[in-house]
Design goal:
about 300 residues; 2 domains; mainly alpha; 18 helices; MetI-like fold; about 0% strand
Length: about 300
Amino acid sequence: MRKQKSDNSFLVINRIRPVTNAVFSIVMSVIALLTVVPVVLVFIISITSSVSLTYRGFSFFPISTSFIAYESLFKTGSQLVDSYLVTIAVTLIHTVVSVMIMTMYAYVLAQQRFAAKKFYTFMVFFTMLFSGGLVPSYIINVNVLHLYDSFWILVLSGMVSAFNIIVLRTFISTTIPIELFDAAQIDGATEFRIFWNIVLPLSKAGLATIGLFVLVGKWNEWFTGMLYIDNPKLVPLQTMLTRIQQRIDFIKNNSSLASSPDGMAMLQSMPSEQTRMAILVLTTVPILFAYPFFQRFFIQGLTIGSVKG
């Protein structure tokens, strides 16, 4: 009876009132709406006709629609397809290798029996405060590693994040009991076997969270391609979009160049506002499919440790 009474008291204390629940629902609905509305507006602009864009500007209710922007994108040659393939390949390879490297480093730091744990933790933390900067990294990548205009400069750049390592180390040390490691060692398991058969299966929530961060960050990365890539076959999707934007802004901001015959020809050959929005839609939609895949792991990560017994 006493246990049942305490359980009922616990449920009463932690029960959400209907008014509070309604307020939370309204607030979260507004936040979700504010997140979706810009994406919907971008798509509507991409299918808005030039006449409607001229008279109404950016509007959710255009006078007329047109899919000519998408048609022109798929008729401009292989640049869009090449950029898509490069970005997909780079993102997938980088995400898998990066998460594996950072997880192995975090697993070592999470072991209490590792003698040099404090030293390597400090080395990771030190890189969060100080770095060599852009010029030394450029010199090393170009003159030492010879990665200029190479596919691997896109894959290897930003491979390890000190912040993600610390997050993974904390996740492993707080969710996996140390007795499990000791039992595996007594049974004769090697460190790699412990990592592969124990740490990875029990760290799916943490790996999914860090993996999503790495995936989105690499998909949206444009500066590395702008700095190191000249070959059109290796230009990532975001870099291509950035170059188009910079080219249009440069022509429009130089009135003398825009009024010249060459400038007018360049402006005519450039994508319109609808085409730029269409490119943005094409670069955004694929990454949206990654969120439903990772969502269940986020929920699992939130519930870890919430149930005792």
